[in-house]
Amino acid sequence: SNTSATIAWEDPNWSYAYEIEYGVGDFEIGSGTFVNCADLEYNLTGLQPNTEYTAHVELNVLKEDIALLNL
Predict the structure, then answer these.
(1) What Å distances lie between residue 24 and 15, 37, 38, 57, 63, CA to CA?
(2) Distances from the Cα of 58 to the Cαs of 1, 14, 22, 64, in angstroms?
(3) Which is nearest to 46 in space by CA: 24, 29, 64?
(4) pLDDT surpassing 60 at residue 66
(5) Which of 15, 35, 52, 67 could form a disulfide with 57 if both were Cys (CB 3.0 to 4.6 A apart)?
(6) Cβ proximity of 57 and 41 under 8 Å
(7) Higher per-residue confidence, 56 vs 62
């Protein structure tokens, strides 16, 4: 079973750092795991097998949601 997942998103400006928050299922925003990223994709690691995750991607500077990804 995979314990990682690569997520990707689009941003026409691609000029900011991104903050990714992810967690199991429909987790409460603010209670997930946070990582920073400077690219338009990120490999999430350490995931539990056979478990659904949700990821929120925000512009790190503006705190504006740009993507909601269900894994």
Answers:
(1) 29, 20, 23, 15, 21
(2) 29, 12, 11, 5
(3) 24
(4) no
(5) 67
(6) no
(7) 56
The number of beta carbons lying within 10 Å of the beta carbon of residue 62 is: 9
pLDDT digits over 14-59, tens only?
Answer: 767 899 999 999 899 999 999 999 899 999 999 999 999 999 988 8
What spatial distance separates the first Cα and last Cα of the chain, rounded to whole Å? 14
Structure tokens at 13: 């400006």
What single-letter amino acid sits at 61? V
Query: Helix or strand or coil: residue 25?
Result: coil
